[in-house]
Amino acid sequence: MAITAIVDQGKIVNNGQPDSAKETTKTSNSEATQDMFLQLLVAEMKYQDPLEPTSNTEWIGQYATFTQIEQSTAMQGSMKQMEASQLVGKQVIMKSTNNLTGETNYFSGMVDYMYVEEGKVYLSVNNELYSIDDLDTVVDPDYMDAVQGGKDIDAMLAKLPAVKSINYHQDGNLIMQIRQKYETMNDYQKSFVNKDSVKLLEEYEARLKEIEPEPDTDNSTGEQESGSTEGTGNTEGTTNNEGANGDNNSNGDTGNQP
User: Fold this and answer.
1) Do residues 121 and 131 touch, judged by C-beta distance below 8 A?
2) For 13, 57, 149, 226, which has the most beta carbons within 10 A of its beta carbon?
3) Does domain 86-139 have CATH number 2.30.30?
4) What's the predicted TM-score (pTM) here?
């Protein structure tokens, strides 16, 4: 009967063992380590100098030291798992160092879940697994929001042309949106906005006020002139009537003369 196995990059991925056998192997690592220590201890006792044998107290002390180290290692693993479980859903910054170049990069994101493999704890951040030993910083959500708010204002300001080149109709709305976003921030969030950015915003607002078009008064002036002309026409009509009446009176006086 042939035995088959999946090989990936020179490593056996599946050696034909069922999952239960694999889990049994993992849980027996501790026992295997103890057996190795006992074998070494027996070998040391077997080949010790019979003229200067090691006392039983020393053997017990060595075994006790080994047990303490083993328990300490197991406790550290449990604490790392507990720490990782508490990080799920939180913003973190991971530090990754390239083993070849020595270059260090930082990645930020939310922890989606924790993963344990062969006693090592990993965190899933941005769909990538990082060792919990690469954890650099746990970030407060309010801090992240404040930092992002400052970046957003800088990005909005970058869309505007130079202060002297802005157009009232094209750039006015964006300038007002930036001011509105800044005013909706609390004092803590405003502290993360660059002071130079706030000063630049004020310069844009001052320039916008300078180029604001004046209200159109042509229509109102035309209406006033039209009303004045009509009033003058009525006055002239009255004058003509008076003139006509004057003529009539004059004619009447002439008829009465002898």
Assistant:
1) yes
2) 149
3) yes
4) 0.48
